Amino acid sequence: MDTFEAAAPTSRTQGRYRFARLGDRFIAFVLDTAFLFGVFAIVDAWAFTRWGSVEGSELRLSTASLLIAVTLNATMFFLYGWLLEAAWGATLGKAMVGIRVVGTRQGRSFSACAVRNVLRIIDGLGFYLVGTAIAACSAARQRVGDIYARTVVIEESFASSIRVAVVVLWIASLAGAGWAVPRICSVNRFAPPPYLSQVLIRVGRNESLAYLQVGSLTVNVQLASNPSDHSALASAESTRSQ
């Protein structure tokens, strides 16, 4: 991560730099989320088939499987933003959009980027409404993480080769998830957890509906009936009436 030569910027532009627009930052976040979705899908499938169980057409997720999946997802999300921003100043989504994170003072970029990404816990409240509101009121468009880490996000022109490589990685993540997840789920590797084995979530289906059960709350979705089933039923009823 480079250093931005301004300790307290007060305008939307500072010298040769232009602060990134909030819309561009949102698009970058969506692209990063889509990339990580592929990684998360693979990790979650492994965790759920390892510490969850399948009974017939019902998937049962234990407390252990959910805690492990959430912990792994949060860790990867943090490491992804921290390491890429510290090393290159941009995640894959930022590189695709054309924005970059820089520091406002001399210092260790790894520690600054660690602070910036840890404080997503605060910025992300209300689906990032907190971070968006604070950045909108900031002259340098800084969210809470940027303010405490002393970083700003600026517009940056990346080489075409870099953008092409990023797009390839982005597509590979989603394609890899589509290839790997069915294969992971097809192998029964269930190992009953010694602790936290209580089933919290049940997902399944029967002949007429699909259902999701979380604790005592159950959501049922009526499945579309096959027209041929209606015809067979009508024929059977007609035969009985004769």
Which structural category fits the helices and strands? alpha+beta
Number of helices: 9
Strand count:
9
Q: What is the domain total for the residues?
A: 1
Low-confidence parts: 6-11, 232-242
Could you walk me through the main structural features you see in this protein, from its secondary elements to its overall organization?
It is elongated and about 65 Å long. Mean pLDDT is 86; it is low at 6-11 and 232-242. It has one domain (13-197). It is built from nine helices and nine strands. A five-stranded antiparallel beta sheet has the order 3-4-7-8-9. A two-stranded antiparallel sheet has the order 1-2. The protein has a two-stranded antiparallel ribbon with strand order 5-6. It is of the alpha+beta class and 242 residues long.
Short description:
The chain is of the alpha+beta class.
Please tag this protein with its features.
about 240 residues; alpha+beta; 5-stranded antiparallel sheet; two-stranded antiparallel ribbon; 9 helices; about 15% strand; elongated; disordered C terminus
SSE layout and pairing:
Layout: E1 13-14, E2 17-18, H1 22-51, E3 53-55, E4 58-62, H2 63-88, H3 92-97, E5 99-103, H4 109-118, H5 120-123, H6 125-136, H7 144-149, E6 151-155, H8 160-185, E7 199-205, E8 209-214, E9 217-222, H9 227-241
Helix pairs in contact: 1-2, 1-8, 2-4
